[in-house]
Every structure is written in structure tokens, then in C-alpha cells.
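Example for tutorial group B:
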């Protein structure tokens, strides 16, 4: 049964702030009530129980504005515990400004200013609540009618934030804008292209985060159903093999070259490549390592890069190529010849940023094709250490006029050393890499 909204009155003004550390503040007519719980679901239930109690005391529905990591929600709560989502017909200018400053508000949830900001949203949302409007039917020519089958796709209910929690209790609230954005990024990262696509990850300066960028992008694409190989196209021992799982063998790209004829034969089977690559058990992609012999002397030629690319193109739909730092070498330049999309990683350190710029400028001058790759590039700025979010954003802004997209990845200690496992990253870091993978997919 729908909640009778005509019974709602301007008072009380109720707002709730839910923090990522399982603390929250419920404000009722200016009076703050702090809450803390073992986990976020318990916290939301405690806040909702208090709101239902307020409605029961008044014996009428109340409005509540809730803010969490997924954004701002406008809810109507009845005395018997029914909850409905409400969308204002317009968002007041002041409320829009507040919503744009949600990160700063969330960081100050124990202050009077934060509570006042959310209360502003509550009051203005209430004044802009939808009202019933009577309409009239106008006759039109049947020729103007669009197909009745052209209805919008059904949107699955929210699974995140307070809306997701309420849906787990039996409601069916729509997802927030943040959740819809994440779903769109997942859709892009899950896309299957007609033919193999090659992504080159390049920066002519070492320590610019090339290998973590390859591993994390490969993990996003692999976890979302892609057929993905991360190829260490390095003239010497590359670090991709050090930062990822090793299979039950030690084979490398040189072994693939030696066995290329058999792997490319019409009788070869899809599982044959498993003898030469190293599968990442949780992140669902494979690694083709560079030669790791300390006394090795073989240098991969441009022609051998062609052979390797033919082999991996036969067995995988998506190829991510890690690279060395010598942009004049044969294997580096042939990698560019095979690339469909360029990713230029950098930290926010000045020399890495300058090297990223020089890499793009060099490709712009090399040929018409490589200039197109540079203009369509995705730059990934990884924070070197905590507390450098502002510097990273400033770095990103330097590149935005010159490339297709720039994504900032926050600092994460799980990326500093050792094997890279996507599931060990913080949620904010995983979200940033998903955003980066979606940006890459848009260019494919």
C-alpha cells in the first residue's frame, strides 16, 4: 500500500549522514543524535528504526534525507515501517551546490556545518516534492505514434548504499547516480569486441607505475569476463613476472617464439597456450612473461614481436602490453604498430609526469597513426603516497587538454610491493581502476 503523502507536514526536518567508518548522525529538527554500529547495515537499521519510531509517535509519515557514499536519497517513512523513495521535481540551486561538495561534508559529519548542509537539502527537497498534476489528452495523428515496443530497459533495483539495504528488506528502490555510473563502467569493461584489441602501456621513464597499471587493468577486464593476456614486452627481465603469480612452469615469450609454428597450426587447440602463460587464479587473466635468464643474450626483434602478436591474437581477445623504457628499441616501436589504444601511466612525481608528456609528444611526431594514438590516449595518474590527492588532480588537469581521458587512482599500500591482487585493494582504488578500464574500452 502506498504511503499517504498528503499527511506529511513540514516538521520535523530529519536528515541522516552515514559515514564509511560505521558512524552516523541523525538530526531531527536541529538536534543531533550520533550513532555507531559494528557494520554499515546495522548502522542503517538503527537509524531507520529511530526514524520509524518518530513517525509512529507522530502517527503520520515523515520525510528523511539520507546521505552516504552513494549520494543523497530522499525517503518517505510511514509509522508502520513502509519506506518509499521520493524524487523532487527540481533540485534547488543551494542543494546542488551542497551535493557537489558531498566529500567535504562527509569529512565533517561531526560538525554543525555538515548537519546544517544536509538539513538545507532536507528542507528544500521537501519544498520541491512532487505534487499531483491533472493532464488532458490531445488527439494526434496515428502516423506520429512511435512503436509501443520501444520502451526503456528495466533498471535493476539498487544493491548499494542505503537504497540497497532497504531493498534487501523487500523494497525496490532505483539505484543512485553513482551506482548507475558504476554499472555503465562494468558494462564497458565486459564488452566483447569483434576481433582482438591491443592496449600498449607506455612511459619512457622507469618507476612510472606501468606494471601495476597493466596488472590492474588486466584484472578488471579479466574479472568481467574478458579473454585477457598481459604481455611483458620488455627487452630485459621485466617486473610483470615478479608482481604476478607464477604457474607450474617458468616459460616466457622466448618459448612461445620457439613453438610459434605449432601454436599457430590449424590443429592447435585453445588450451595449448596454457603451457606458456601464467594464469592469475583470482583475477582471471594470463601473463606472458619476458625472458628472465640472468645470462641471457637474446634481444627480441621487431619480426619476433609480430610472431608473438599473431600467437596471442589467436588465443586472446584482449592484449595488454607492458613495455620497457627505451622508446627507440625495435620491440617498443613494433608494439606501437600493433596498438589499438594507448595508456600512459604516471605518478605525480615531476620527472615521471615530464616523461609521460615526452612520450606523448614523441608519438605525436613519429607518424600519423601514432599521433592518433597519442591524441586518443588515456593517462592514468597514480598517487605516490597518501595525502597527495590535490597534487594528483593538478597533474591530471595538465594532461586533460591533450588526451581523450585522464583517471586518477588513489594511493593504496597493496600496490607498493609484492604480488598484485585486485581483491586486496581498497574499494576506492578498485573503483578507480574500473573507471580507468571503462575509459580504455571507450577507445576500442
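The residue assignment follows.
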Amino acid at each position: 500500500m502506498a504511503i499517504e503523502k498528503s499527511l506529511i507536514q513540514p516538521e520535523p526536518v530529519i536528515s541522516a549522514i552515514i559515514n564509511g567508518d560505521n558512524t552516523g548522525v541523525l538530526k531531527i529538527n536541529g538536534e543531533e543524535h550520533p550513532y555507531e554500529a559494528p557494520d554499515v547495515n546495522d548502522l542503517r537499521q538503527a537509524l531507520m528504526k529511530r526514524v520509524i519510531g518518530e513517525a509512529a509517535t507522530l502517527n503520520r509519515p515523515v520525510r528523511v534525507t539520507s546521505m552516504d557514499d552513494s549520494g543523497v536519497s530522499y525517503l518517505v517513512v510511514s509509522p508502520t515501517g513502509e519506506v518509499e523513495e521520493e524524487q523532487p521535481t527540481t533540485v534547488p540551486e543551494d542543494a546542488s551546490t551542497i551535493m557537489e561538495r558531498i566529500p567535504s561534508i562527509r569529512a565533517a559529519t561531526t560538525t554543525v556545518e555538515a548537519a546544517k548542509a544536509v538539513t538545507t537539502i532536507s528542507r528544500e527537497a521537501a519544498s520541491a516534492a512532487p505534487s499531483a498534476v491533472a493532464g488532458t489528452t490531445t488527439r494526434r495523428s496515428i502516423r506520429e505514434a512511435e512503436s509501443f515496443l520501444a520502451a526503456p530497459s528495466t533498471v535493476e533495483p539498487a544493491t548499494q548504499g542505503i537504497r540497497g539495504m532497504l531493498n534487501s528488506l523487500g523494497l525496490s528502490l532505483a539505484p543512485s547516480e553513482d551506482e548507475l555510473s558504476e554499472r555503465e563502467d562494468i558494462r564497458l569493461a565486459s564488452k566483447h569486441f569483434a576481433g582482438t584489441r591491443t592496449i600498449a602501456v607506455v612511459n619512457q621513464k622507469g618507476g612510472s607505475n606501468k606494471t601495476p597499471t597493466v596488472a590492474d587493468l588486466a584484472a578488471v577486464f579479466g574479472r568481467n569476463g574478458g579473454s585477457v593476456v598481459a604481455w611483458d614486452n620488455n627487452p630485459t627481465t621485466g617486473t610483470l613476472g615478479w608482481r604476478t603469480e607464477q604457474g607450474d612452469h617458468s616459460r616466457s615469450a622466448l618459448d612461445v617464439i620457439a613453438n610459434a609454428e605449432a601454436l599457430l597450426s590449424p590443429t592447435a587447440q585453445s588450451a595449448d597456450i596454457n603451457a606458456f602463460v601464467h594464469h592469475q587464479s583470482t583475477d582471471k587473466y594470463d601473463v606472458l612473461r619476458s625472458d628472465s635468464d640472468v645470462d641471457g643474450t637474446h634481444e627480441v626483434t621487431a619480426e619476433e614481436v609480430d610472431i608473438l602478436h599473431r600467437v596471442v591474437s589467436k588465443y586472446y581477445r584482449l592484449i595488454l602490453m607492458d613495455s620497457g623504457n627505451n622508446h627507440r628499441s625495435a620491440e617498443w616501436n613494433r608494439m606501437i604498430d600493433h596498438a589499438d589504444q594507448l595508456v600512459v601511466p604516471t605518478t605525480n612525481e615531476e620527472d615521471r609526469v615530464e616523461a609521460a608528456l615526452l612520450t606523448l609528444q614523441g608519438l605525436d611526431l613519429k607518424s600519423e597513426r601514432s599521433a592518433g594514438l597519442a591524441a586518443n590516449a588515456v593517462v592514468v595518474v597514480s598517487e605516490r603516497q597518501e595525502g597527495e590527492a590535490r597534487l594528483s588532480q593538478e597533474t591530471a588537469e595538465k594532461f586533460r587538454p591533450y588526451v581523450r581521458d585522464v583517471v586518477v587512482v588513489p594511493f593504496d599500500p597493496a600496490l607498493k610491493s609484492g604480488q598484485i591482487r585486485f581483491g586486496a585493494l581498497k574499494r576506492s582504488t578498485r573503483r578507480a581502476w574500473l573507471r580507468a578500464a571503462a575509459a580504455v574500452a571507450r577507445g576500442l
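The longest strand covers residues 62-68. Compare this with the pattern of hydrophobic and polar residues in the output above.
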